[in-house]
Write a structure and sequence with these properties.
heterodimer, A: alpha/beta, Arc Repressor Mutant, subunit A, Structural Genomics Hypothetical 15.5 Kd Protein In mrcA-pckA Intergenic Region, Chain A, 3 domains, eight-stranded mixed β-sheet, 14 helices, 13 strands, B: alpha/beta, Rossmann fold, 4 domains, two-stranded antiparallel ribbon, 22 helices, 10 strands
């Protein structure tokens, strides 16, 4: 058998690493040094799902030799329509381990180190060892966490502390890939309002005037479950639980003469399922790994800094430079403006924070420079500040005053300047 | 209502669970079409000279991966190549043990592992031999994928055979940081379920209410008399109809027709909201105000539909016509009768009491059902006039057509574009060349590459290879001559320079693929294949270029 790293095997890749192209940087020196820079670049892949499987394969076939992967999930049957490193017999096993072992077996000479757990389990020292971080996540929260962490790690004196973050995301036939140079270019938080959450159905509609099958499902999930089974922790992967919610929703729909509650819809609503297909994942994952190759080797210019893709009607992409915002709560130094009706109670205001595109914080605690407005933990502090919930914003803060918002999902504070409407 | 509620819980089957995330995009009908389709992949067509085995075929295999996973019925890989060392550096569906074996067989084996529901087979002969030896070979497939560059003679023979059989072809090339693919569809390719954005497709008929809808409005005639709770729960559609009546009374029976009038009308609606309540406003009025500009447009037949109605296939269906054209002619008849399309019948969610909303929803649904019945009547009449057909058009298909009538689409398929003197292609190339950032230069570079490969494969000169400077110069000149041949184009220096740059970048890997670019392109091509096979969403018409240097793409109609 021929040696694993025979130059013949990597012939095409090495062609672009050993000769300049019309668009590569004039100062770039192609050759063996570029190849060894690539091979010694340690890369971290966050997520071993639809994007992650593709990303691992692509990095291994792009000449990266030292790859790490983090994922806390286990393999489910609904992953098999796109997560091509998994088989039916792998159901229930950890994604990171199965994916790493598969790619290591298939592509000789690559080392893939899996970690089964949460990104929050790891500290800055861990993230500091990597050259590039590629994200294939389905959670905005995890993206915001890694973004804030990498920005916090930047030491202006030490260029090695700046870790390029390449992020991919998909939904159905659509997706996006973006490159973030922490503190230097637009970050996930700067772009947060480009990915606004779907507006939630008001609770009163769910409780009293349902009109859509989804309203009946929300009622069964949020209200009926609390009433009848509050001692069972609801588990959206438990078929018995979903079945119960479906039956309750179905009964309620019948009562209101609403058509269209199905099991599939019930699952979709309670698990907040996003449609996902292999082909979109392939496009977005390869877009991210192509940037990783270009960043690690300089063989061509990298993306600055956002490419969106939509495939419902022909093939549409839009590549542009998203703006770095000076009032970004993570990478900027100014507080972000937030317009608020001063007549609102603090409680009402807090409810809006989860849905506001510029905040999207589910469990906020708030304080001004002088005083704590509302603090969820510890319980004593919660009790002390609870009375503020019923007070109006006007009573608690001044127009234009700055508040700091913390949330258990993030380690940093978010600063907002409240402007009265 | 005749709709029945299902009585017992029917949980999803294991297949439904496996395919859950995609069924939410193309439903059971799309899945069925996919499972009934076999695709053919022509992954190489012989070596390029002495030193190269030809196309490495990664983009083809990556495309198939994205079709095998969602459960395409089956696939066949045609590939005469033998696995070599460079294949292992780019192709994930090969392993160490594959070296020296048939590439068709090895990639087929490893792709089949991805999904036990999918049949896979392979052929090590060349595609021309296969279609010449066995006339039954090509008709088995619903779609043909070709990985190029391959010599013109093979491509032309395959494409014209597929055209005869109305089989779509996707011709793809991925080399270095660039890729391009073109889709050849049959002369007419109709799509009913185009899945437009639901936001842009509401059809509420507020300017042309039918009697039942008008009747519903009279129930809220006395808005002033309603208590705050009732007033805040009148569905916004009824509010708009109510204020439209008022407007008409003071405007000689006319509805607000221009922007100025609509803004005035919007103010009229806004001023009707009660603000003395604790919320300081009413949500249903907010919804009504927000809907004025987009919902008060008179019906006009979309130009795409006008074009379809005027097509010969629609005007005079024959016994051999596809169901689509018979339904289209019936919908045209409906349109001629009513100057309207059948009502889709869906109603957006809005602030309202449950019972009021459901009753309004039923008004829309019954009207839609009556429209479907009328169209069905026309369909059945056309069917009986045409004489016996294999099966009657299913009611379900007529219903789906009516629901999507305003957004149906017919693509006029074109051939795989080449630099062979075709006037519309040359014109389009010329127009795009005048746009400074256009990726059309990359397309031209690929045409030049096709020319070089054709040269090597057909002349079979020994020693000639893809890095032959003279072969490239010849083909570059030939391409530029071709583009300027009709005299309307003069290529300035900048244009030439851009074509040369694209050619230079393309030559960097000496015809080889980079895995990332082929994987990305395999995703794009599979996306188009899925749209063609399921006949849902809108496929490419007809060429796409991806530039991995600058991470962008562009579509061309060539």
């Amino acid at each position: 058998m021929s040696p694993i790293d025979s130059p013949l095997r990597w012939r095409y890749l090495h062609e672009v690493l050993t000769k300049p192209g019309p668009f590569s940087d004039e100062d770039w020196i192609p050759g063996p040094e570029t190849i060894s820079a690539l091979e010694s670049s340690k890369v971290l892949v966050i997520g071993a799902g639809g994007l992650g499987c593709e990303i691992l394969k692509n990095l291994a076939l792009s000449g990266f030799k030292d790859i790490h992967v983090i994922d806390m999930d286990t393999i489910d049957i609904s992953n098999l329509n796109r997560q091509f490193l998994f088989r039916h017999s792998d159901i229930g096993k950890p994604k990171a381990e199965v994916a790493a072992a598969f790619v290591e077996r298939r592509v000789k000479g690559v080392s893939i180190t899996p970690f089964v757990g949460k990104i929050q389990d790891k500290d800055e020292d861990y993230y500091m060892q990597f050259k590039i971080i590629v994200c294939g996540l389905d959670s905005i929260e995890a993206r915001r966490w890694i973004n804030a962490t990498l920005i916090g790690m930047v030491d202006p004196e030490d260029p090695e502390s700046l870790k390029p973050l390449i992020d991919g995301g998909t939904e159905g036939f659509k997706g996006q890939a973006r490159v973030i140079l922490p503190t230097l270019s637009s970050c996930i938080e700067c772009q947060l309002d480009m990915h606004a959450p779907r507006p939630a159905v008001p609770l009163c509609t769910i409780a009293t005037i349902p009109r859509q099958p989804q309203h009946c499902i929300e009622w069964a999930h949020q209200i009926a479950w609390q009433e009848h089974r509050k001692d069972d922790a609801f588990d959206s992967d438990d078929m018995e639980h979903i079945g119960w919610v479906y039956n309750e929703a179905h009964e309620r729909a019948k009562q209101f003469n609403i058509h269209g509650v199905t099991f599939q819809m019930t699952q979709g609503v309670v698990k907040n399922i996003i449609p996902a297909i292999a082909s979109t994942n392939a496009v977005i994952a390869a877009a991210t790994t192509s940037e990783a190759l270009k960043i690690a080797t300089s063989c061509n210019p990298y993306l600055e800094n956002y490419m969106m893709y939509a495939g419902e009607e022909g093939v549409y992409t839009y590549t542009f430079e998203a703006e770095k915002k000076s009032d970004c709560p993570v990478c900027g130094n100014l507080a972000r403006k937030m317009t608020v009706n001063p007549k609102m109670t603090l409680e009402e205001f807090i409810e809006t924070i989860g849905e506001r595109p510029e905040a999207q914080l589910k469990k906020p605690s708030l304080r001004t420079e002088e005083k704590t407005l509302y603090q969820r933990f510890p319980p004593q502090l919660e009790e002390q500040t609870r009375a503020n919930l019923k007070r109006s914003i006007r009573e608690l803060v001044d127009d234009g005053e700055e508040i700091a918002v913390s949330d258990p999902a993030y380690t940093i504070d978010f600063r907002y300047r409240l402007i009265f409407s | 209502m005749t709709e029945a509620f299902p009585s017992t819980l029917v949980g999803p089957s294991s297949k439904e669970r496996k395919y859950d995330r995609q069924l939410r995009l193309w439903a059971a009908s799309g899945q069925k079409a996919l499972e009934e389709s076999r695709v053919l992949l022509v992954n190489s067509d012989g070596p390029w000279g002495d030193q190269s085995t030809g196309v490495s075929g990664v983009v083809g295999v990556e495309t198939l991966k994205n079709l095998v996973l969602p459960g395409v019925g089956g696939f066949t890989i045609v590939d005469p190549a033998v696995v070599t060392e460079p294949d292992l550096g780019v192709n994930f569906f090969l392993e160490e043990e594959s070296l020296g074996k048939s590439r068709a067989e090895e990639t087929c084996r490893l792709l089949r592992e991805l999904n036990p529901d999918v049949e896979g087979s392979f052929q090590t002969q060349s595609i021309l031999e296969l279609i010449q030896q066995d006339p039954e070979f090509l008709p088995r497939y619903k779609l043909v994928l070709v990985s190029g560059p391959i010599k013109h003679s093979s491509l032309d023979a395959l494409c014209s055979a597929a055209r005869e059989l109305n089989i779509p072809v996707l011709y793809t090339r991925s080399v270095g940081f660039y890729s391009t693919f073109s889709l050849q569809l049959p002369a007419t390719f109709p799509i009913v379920e185009t899945h437009p954005d639901p936001e842009t497709t509401q059809d509420l008929r507020l300017l042309n209410p039918w009697p039942e809808l008008t009747e519903a409005t009279t129930r809220v005639e006395n808005l002033e008399g309603l208590d705050d709770h009732q007033h805040g729960h009148v569905p916004y559609i009824l509010l708009l109809l109510h204020y439209l009546d008022q407007w008409k009374e003071s405007h000689g029976g006319n509805v607000p027709s221009n922007y100025k009038e609509k803004t005035e009308f919007r103010e009229m609606v806004r001023s009707g909201a009660r603000t003395s309540n604790p919320e300081g406003g009413e949500e249903n009025y907010d919804e009504a105000v927000a809907a004025v500009l987009k919902s008060l447009n008179p019906f006009s037949l979309p130009s795409s539909l006008r074009e379809i109605f005027e097509m010969e296939e629609c005007k005079t269906p024959t016994p051999k016509s596809a169901d689509f054209w018979i339904i289209a002619s019936a919908v045209n008849e409906f349109y001629q009768q009513h100057k309207m399309l059948p009502l889709p019948g869906s109603l957006p969610d809005m602030k309202a009491q449950s019972a009021d909303y459901i009753s309004l929803q039923n008004i829309y649904k019954s009207k839609a059902r009556r429209d479907v019945e009328e169209v069905t009547k026309y369909v059945r009449r056309v069917e009986s006039q045409l004489g016996p057909r294999p099966i009657d058009i299913p009611d379900k298909d007529i219903e789906v057509f009516c629901k999507n009538a305003a957004h149906i689409n017919v693509i006029h398929g074109r051939n795989i574009p080449q630099l062979n003197g075709d006037a519309p292609t040359l014109k389009s190339l010329g127009n795009n060349l005048s746009i400074p950032d256009s990726l059309v230069t990359v397309f031209i570079a690929f045409q030049i590459l096709d020319g070089v490969v054709t040269d090597i494969q057909t002349r079979g000169q020994s020693g000639q290879s893809l890095d032959d400077e003279a072969a490239w110069s010849t083909q570059i000149s030939r391409a530029i001559d071709e583009i300027t041949s009709d005299g309307s184009q003069v290529l300035d220096d900048d244009c030439r320079e851009r074509i040369l740059e694209a050619t230079q970048e393309l030559r960097r890997t000496e015809g080889g693929e980079l895995h990332n670019i082929s994987s990305l392109t395999g995703g794009l091509v599979a996306q188009e294949a899925l749209k063609v096979i399921t006949r849902q969403y809108v496929p490419l018409n007809n060429t796409c270029v991806f530039d991995g240097v600058h991470s962008r793409s562009e579509m061309f109609k060539l």
